[in-house]
Amino acid sequence: MRSGTIQNNTYSHLTAKERDTISFPARIIKERQLLKGAILDFGCGLGKDVELLNSIGHNVTAYDPFYFPDYPKKLFDTIICFYVLNVLLPNEQEHVLMNVSSLLKSNGKAYFAVRRDIQYEGFRLHKLHQKQTYQCNVLLPFKSIFKNESCEIYEYQHYTALHQGNEQLSPFLKGNEERELVTESTEAFTIYDKYPVNPGHCLIIPKRITANYFDLTVAEQQACWSMVNKVQNILQEQYNPDGFNIGVNVEEAAGQTIPHVHLHVIPRYNHDMEDPRGGVRNVIPSRGNYLK
């Protein structure tokens, strides 16, 4: 994916278009009766789909970081995200996927529409606004439910809901117990620890199953650490901790008991232990406090 010489994507909102009718992907989703319950239009642009869908009885909330910047405070049954990913850089795309997954109910579904008619990838001068805007082709690892020469629509469900009980994908999915998803990207997902050290204790898990952290690709490692930032924001809002410990156990000698890489994000609270000095050094308790 080419990004030209520009290092940011300041003008992505300028790609939003004025329309008088419902968008093509919204029409497809509506005709298939996939708009259920409380609906979020994530990256709704100028909000025409929101306006028209609400006018025919749907319950749609608008969110767009530029035009409707009040970030949603609840979970949704259905989320639509149309032609947003095509105008974002790869790191921005992953951020959208994490946000959508964390705003979706455990049994909900999200629909991503992407363009299939982009001939030139990268930054170019917008004809109307005369600003540098970005566009690219996007492929997602989700179920494709519609495709023609100009558009493809993907259906997304929480990784933990879609693959519950599939031990071949991960030992963390073993059994019939539902594991609540915190957030997800194309490369990784986060669940709450089954035996939490503290309230909010999370595990960040790459989707490709491998035991050793150092066997992950650099891209997979980066995806996990990018997710650490998102998870920290979620936990800070929900649990309001006073600090965090973040770490990974590699091999049995370091305490690893499950043969699938996972990063621990552990919220810490004032007075949750008598003397917290040393932090992660306390993996060997007698050596944790080097000031003694």
TrEMBL record:
<dbReference type="GO" id="GO:0016787">
    <property type="term" value="F:hydrolase activity"/>
</dbReference>
<keyword id="KW-0378">Hydrolase</keyword>
<feature type="short sequence motif" description="Histidine triad motif">
    <location>
        <begin position="260"/>
        <end position="264"/>
    </location>
</feature>
<feature type="domain" description="HIT">
    <location>
        <begin position="168"/>
        <end position="275"/>
    </location>
</feature>
<dbReference type="Pfam" id="PF13489">
    <property type="entry name" value="Methyltransf_23"/>
</dbReference>
<dbReference type="InterPro" id="IPR019808">
    <property type="entry name" value="Histidine_triad_CS"/>
</dbReference>
<feature type="active site" description="Tele-AMP-histidine intermediate">
    <location>
        <position position="262"/>
    </location>
</feature>
<dbReference type="InterPro" id="IPR011146">
    <property type="entry name" value="HIT-like"/>
</dbReference>
<dbReference type="InterPro" id="IPR036265">
    <property type="entry name" value="HIT-like_sf"/>
</dbReference>
<dbReference type="InterPro" id="IPR029063">
    <property type="entry name" value="SAM-dependent_MTases_sf"/>
</dbReference>
<protein>
    <submittedName>
        <fullName>Diadenosine tetraphosphate (Ap4A) hydrolase</fullName>
    </submittedName>
</protein>
<dbReference type="Pfam" id="PF01230">
    <property type="entry name" value="HIT"/>
</dbReference>
<dbReference type="InterPro" id="IPR052908">
    <property type="entry name" value="AP-4-A_phosphorylase"/>
</dbReference>
<dbReference type="InterPro" id="IPR001310">
    <property type="entry name" value="Histidine_triad_HIT"/>
</dbReference>
